[in-house]
Amino acid sequence: MENFRELLERDHVTVFDGAVGTMLYSKGIYINRSYDELNLTSPDLVREVHAEYVRAGAEILETNTFGATASRLQQYGLEGSLRQINVAAARLVQSVETLDGAKLIFADESWLLFRQSGTEPVLRIYSEATSIAKMRALLNEGEQLSRNS
């Protein structure tokens, strides 16, 4: 898939992943902590959730960054880790392998889409709930992944 237009023009349903937080909860991570911090503290668990969605047929994965904004992370004393959390999330979703070797697309909940190859973002839609710092971290990581792939 070369770009977002191709995604829209394809002649079949495109499958997205589901609620990463719900999956983490089902694995024993309770709601009294930051699920976004798990990108740093329990990366294998987050990667496992992404891989389960791929095995279920997902072609597009969202980063585990639903609450990875300064205001949300501040509730847990993690606002200083905003960049690291978002970068780790992008790297985690990038590291998931597909069953057939196909390239995945990864996104965050504000629909900032990247090709798995790490090339330039193919679509940028900013939601009001997303912080500029979060978007910068994800964009910068996408550009870095591009240089390293």
Report how far the terminal alpha carbons are from each other. 17 Å
Question: What number is the mean pLDDT?
Answer: 76
Strand portion, in percent?
5-15%
**CATH architecture heading:** Alpha-Beta Barrel
Count of alpha/pi helices = 7
- Strand order, largest beta sheet: 1-2-3
Structural class: mainly alpha
Largest sheet: 3 strands, mixed
Our Rg estimate from Cα atoms comes to 15 Å
The CATH homologous superfamily corresponds to: Homocysteine-binding-like domain
Can you tell me the CATH class? Alpha Beta
* Helical proportion, percent range: 40-55%
What does this molecule look like?
With 149 residues, this protein is mainly alpha-helical. It has a single domain, classed as TIM Barrel (Alpha-Beta Barrel). The protein has seven helices and three strands. It has a three-stranded mixed sheet. A hairpin with a 5-residue loop joins strand 2 and strand 3 (113-115). The protein is globular and about 45 Å long.
Question: Could you provide a short overview of the structure?
Answer:
The protein has one domain: TIM Barrel (Alpha-Beta Barrel), CATH 3.20.20. It is 44% helix and 6% strand.
